[in-house]
Structures are given as structure tokens and as C-alpha cells.
Amino acid sequence: MLTIKQLNKSFGNKQVLYDVNFTAQDGHILGLIGKNGSGKTTIFHSILKFVEYSGDISIDGHPFGAGDYNSVGYLPEERSLLPKFKIKQQIKFLARLKGMDDKEIDKLLADWMLRLEVKGKVDDKIKSLSKGNQQKVQMIATLIHNPQLIILDEPFSGLDPLNVEIMKREILNQKSKGATVIFSDHNMSNVEELCDDVVMIDNGKVVLNGNTYDVRNKFGLTRIYVRTSMAIEDLAKIEGVEKAELLNDGRIKLYLTSAEYGYTIFDILSQGKYIQTFDQEPPTLNEIFKQKAGEGL
User: CB-based contacts of 237: which residues, under 8 Å, 6+ apart?
Assistant: First the structure.
């Protein structure tokens, strides 16, 4: 478990983090979200002691120290592979820093190449790989030593949908093994899908913190997704409907002024008969993100 208390950080006279507090649980995935420049990477660098800060950061109840690095896997936003190295050279170079020996690395590397579906051989040079496969190699380097705390800075950046799914599968696998996983992403759909908990940073301050489902529900069940023969213009005129929007999949999304209107809208649309789709939900995390980020502008 990772605990951060009263984390503050300044670069010269510019303060970039203000009293940041949150906890990342074992066997949970925490999404750290925020605009570019909000402080997410600085939080990661503070956890890893790449920068000096004020506050307390602890892992499993003790201050994070040099002895904890072997139990941490870190995927930086700026990929750091050496293009002239072969895959096995690159992995060995980084895994040795985590205390692994060559025999153990060789035994595990072949399995990792299969698990992440890397297109290439361990003797291929990094520069010969596609960007997606290079990213998978970096992920292998992050995870091969079986870390307990995993920090992933934009792990899906630049990946096609198939490779995103491969990476998601492995992140969920690490969660199932009891690891503490923290990752940042600008795609809120990924955060909603994967994360048990979410922390939003805006201008260096925590503005949202909690269980992902609970955070969304705090904003009320003010969205309805419906399939109906009623014209969208007529739906928009129903009392309590602020806006009606036709989605690409044929559903209509209704934005409500209050969740309480859901009951009467259901009665109006169903007329006591079967209705194919009527789903009342809170705003998406993407909508909440835009709202909270906009408040800080």
C-alpha cells in the first residue's frame, strides 16, 4: 500500500503541488488524472525520490527508501530504451538493476515476449521494432522483476486498439496478483474500465479522490441513454431534459437538470410497455473531468 500525506513541491519560487493526499491500496488500480501540467508526473517523481519534496510518502507503513526500489516497476512517459541494444540486452541491463541474475532473466523473458505478443526475437535490436513493440519491451522491463508497486505514466500512449487491450490485460493480471497499480491516462474510458479508484489533480491540488463508481455517483444520475421511436426534438422538450444528443450507436443521450426526472421520463417513454433501452447513469468520468478542469481555468 502506498500512502501520500501533505505532499508539497516547488521548483524555485513556483509551487506545483499543494497538500496532496491519497492512498493506493494493494490489489487495486488507481487512476491519476489531470490536465497536462497539472502535476501528475511530479507526483510520480516524488514517490520515486527523483525530486525533493515536503510531506510523507510511505510504502507498507514505512518511509519509501532505497531498499524499496527493487519492489517498484516504473514506466516513464518518456520511453528510455537504447535503440542499438538487442531486446535481451535492454531487459538484462534494467533487470540487473533490480537484483535479477541473467539465468532468471533468460527464463522469464521468453514467457514475457509471448504474454505481451511482442513481434520480434530477443536478439532483435530495439530500433528494428515498431513503436508499439518497443512500448511492450519497456513494459516487460517494468514488470519482469515482479514489483509490488507499479507506476505507469501514460502506458497506452501511441498504441493501436489491439495493443491497448494486451496492455490492459496485463495490468489487470498484476492487480489480480495483489500489486498496487497507479497509472495516468488522458483517455477517461480507460480509467473508468480499469480503475478501482481515481484521483484528479488540477493545478497541483487534489480535486477528486475516491472509488471510481462513488466519484461518478456524487454527480447524480443525470444522464439517460435510451432507444425510442420518439423524435429527438420531442425528447428535448420533455420537462427536466436539458439537452438530447443522438449517439453513433443509435441511442439518444438525455442530459437531465435533476436525477428525479428519471421516473417520469421512463413513464412517458415506456407507456407501461417494453422499452429496448433505458439506462439512467451518472455523468461519465470524461464529462466530470471536463467540468472540474474547466472550473480551474
Answer: none
Statement: residue 297 has pLDDT above 60: no
Instruction: Tell me what the mean pLDDT of segment 203-214 comes to.
Output: 94
The three cell numbers locating residue 245: 444528443
Question: With 70 as the cut, is the pLDDT of residue 244 above it?
Answer: yes
Amino acid at 282: P
Contacts of 84 (CB under 8 A, 6+ apart): 125, 126, 127
Domains of the chain and any CATH numbers: 2-210 (3.40.50.300), 220-281 (3.30.70)
Do 33 and 184 form a contact (C-beta atoms < 8 A)? yes
Indicate the pTM of the whole model: 0.89
Q: Which one, of 242, 263, 267, lies nearest residue 253 by Cα? A: 242
pLDDT class of 42 with cuts at 50, 70, 90? very high
Spell out the SS3 assignment of the chain. CEEEEEEEEEECCEEEEEEEEEEECCCCEEEEECCCCCCHHHHHHHHCCCCCCEEEEEECCEECCHHHHHHEEEECCCCCCCCCCEHHHHHHHHHHCCCCCHHHHHHHHHHHHHHCCCCCCCCCEHHHCCHHHHHHHHHHHHHCCCCCEEEEECCCCCCCHHHHHHHHHHHHHHHHCCCEEEEECCCHHHHHHHCCEEEEEECCEEEEEEEHHHHHHCCCCCEEEEECCCCHHHHCCCCCEEEEEECCCCCEEEEECCHHHHHHHHHHHHCCCCCCEEEEECCCHHHHHHHHHHHCC
In this prediction, residue 52 carries a pLDDT of: 94
